Amino acid sequence: MRLFKLFWILPFLFSFVMLHQKKKIKIFLAGDSTMSVKRLGAYPETGWGMPFVHFWDSTVTVVNLAQNGRSTQTFITEGWWKKIMDDAQPGDYVFIQFGHNDESVEKKDRYTTPEQYMANLEKFIKETRDKKAIPVLITPVSRRKFTNGEAQATHATYTPLVLKVAALQKVPVINLDLKSRQLYQSFGEETSKLLFLQLKPGEHPNYPEGKNDNTHFNELGARLIAQLVLADIKTLLPALADRIVKLK
Questions:
Q1: CA distance 39 to 19
Q2: Contact 121/72 with Cβ under 8 angstroms?
Q3: Domains of the chain by range and CATH?
Q4: Neighbour-count burial of 2, counting CB atoms closer than 10 A to its CB (0-12 exposed, 13-18 middle, 19+ buried)
Q5: Strand 25-31's sheet: what is its strand order?
Q6: What is the DSSP string of 7-32?
């Protein structure tokens, strides 16, 4: 009987010891409105970084500093990148996802040329590595756009630049542009609206006139996008994946 109790208790003791042996780390999220924490008045708009925080064990703290409307350049000039670098410690991770605002040619305050965009990504990588933290690049998440029932690429210029920088700098990269587009395709043109901030007039008090947004997610969309990121973490970053909460 005592032997049976010992075998029953051992897995729990092992899990407890392993958890306390792990060094506590932070995952910093640097990005734009598709990732950011939303104010209550914007609900049900949800950045994918919001559900992302709930998938980790107690050794991980997610610090989401993604900001609405920021490009790589404005994230730097407004001091958001410095906040991350001031806090980052060896062994931390910095997830970097920009592109939506960098490619906005008509918005001169945030637009970056392809050359500037690549240079800013390289700056992020170098400074993260200087802190002995681990940079992870993420392509801009796709907007919802269909033609003849097929989900279309919406970041044809800037996504390849992320992949190019990742290859040159030997950095892990998550192609969220591709993965999210595949997700929308699996839902179909009409049903994929259920992932986005799509509201009829009078449907929600925060949007009395309704909303037809094919860029920003609702709670369901944000959670599914976060799960795409987690799936790639399991492949690309096994040491970090070991800290994902094991669902029973």
A1: 33
A2: yes
A3: 25-241 (3.40.50.1110)
A4: exposed
A5: 60-64, 25-31, 93-97, 134-138, 173-174
A6: HHHHHHHHHHHHHHHSPPEEEEEEE-
Question: How confident is the model at residue 3, as a pLDDT?
Answer: 44
CB atoms within 10 A of CB 67: 19
Radius of gyration for the chain, computed over Cα atoms and rounded to the nearest angstrom: 20
Tell me how long the chain is: 248
Which helix (H) or strand (E) element contains residue 151? strand 150-151
Output the six-digit token pair for 237: 């970053």
- Give the tokens for residue 71: 């490009």
Residue keyed to tokens 């999210």:
180
**DSSP at 101:** T
Element (H, E) at 147: strand 146-147
Q: Which two tokens stand for residue 204?
A: 């929600």
Which residues are annotated as catalytic?
33, 209, 216
Per residue in 97-151, pLDDT (tens digit) is 999 999 998 888 899 999 999 999 999 999 999 999 999 999 999 999 999 999 9
What type of residue sits at position 230?
L
DSSP state string for 172-212: -EE-HHHHHHHHHHHH-TTGGGGGEEEE-TTS-TT-TT-EE
- What tokens does 14 get? 């092992």
Percent of the chain whose pLDDT exceeds 90: 88
Instruction: Pull the structure tokens for residue 148.
Output: 């003849």
